[in-house]
Amino acid sequence: MQMxxxxxxxxxxxxxxxxxxxxVSVVIPCLDEAETxxxxxxxxxxxxxxxxxxxxxxxVDNGSTDGSGALARGAGALVVDEPRRGYGSAYLAGLSAxxxxxxxMVDADxxxxxxxxxRFVDELERGAQVVIGNRMxxxxxxxxSWVSRVGNPLLSGFLNVLxxxxxxxxxxxxxxxxxxxxxxxxxxxxxxxxxxxxxxxxTRERLDVREVPIELHPRVGRSKLEPFRDGWRHLxxxxxxxxxxxxxxxxxxxxxxGSVVTLLVFVHVAVFGRNLYIHSLILGCLLVLIGVQAIxxxxxxxxxxxYFISDQDRLFQKLRARVRLEHGLVLAALLGLAGxxxxxxxxxxxxxxxxxxxxxxxxxxxxxxxxxxxAQIFFTSFLISIIGLRRQxxxx
Length: 396
Hints:
Shape: elongated
Strand order of the largest sheet: 3-2-1-4-6-5-7
Helix content: 40-55%
Order of helices and strands: EHEHEHEHEHEHHEHHHHHHH
């Protein structure tokens, strides 16, 4: 592998006009890491020099109050100030500033060995687009808490199941990416969940994702990780990026179950030797309403994914080609008319009894449910159409 060698420029010094862009950028997020940041920068610069890489070291000062930024600048790094707190915010700023064809991301707490950088670059050279470190087989004593030892494999496994990935350590803080892949990744999250989002987006875009086994060393200084809060943020982004699992499947199950219960009430079929009455009907109709709402929300979420974050959703794109706003409105109108007809029957029977006690409670509940479902379909159809205006604008 041949690379041109140029001097790693100290902070504040611009490259000469016409000089080639840096080949490898090492991006280090930093929040109050005065104990380690100088050594991190020195190690990174030394590795780049020994490996004969064109390169730069970028430190993203994420609002440090201990002088970390000045120490990094003094050690020879380009320092980018990002006052908006968050692991993802720091990396978004660093990735935007990076000039290298290959970008290596590594934490500032000395938990990772900077000598591993060439291995990550080599994988990119061999065709990988995203390279993730895997620490789980080489954790030094005291380097990872028992909560993380349990939670990390669980969250990584859940991510693999929901998003059809195959990553053993989804939250590793040492990874690398081709700069040309960043537009496809279109990363947005601002916290620790940034690590999960990168893998999800890379899988969605069918990028070549590889893993490199590395060692995890005990960190120097105070940890900023909050296992339960950050674990929830990872879980949240895993769910949000899968509206089928979060909305559509539960919605379909509730709609089916509610419809079955409602039908059983009206056909007077005993269940486990007991007949179902109005309380069962209320439960069934409630499940129908929640199910329809969940399905509508799931469809809107998938539309948002396609139109705003460039999701490759073949099923939604097929539906989009065949189903239009008018189809939803027609369905809503038919259900609305059916519901109003049921309301008319209830009112007619009530009137025939002199508007006394309403004796058609079951039919009234069914009528209200059908009208409500029609309204949900009506408004959801328009919502998806509004989201789709993005596509029409981009097609101009």
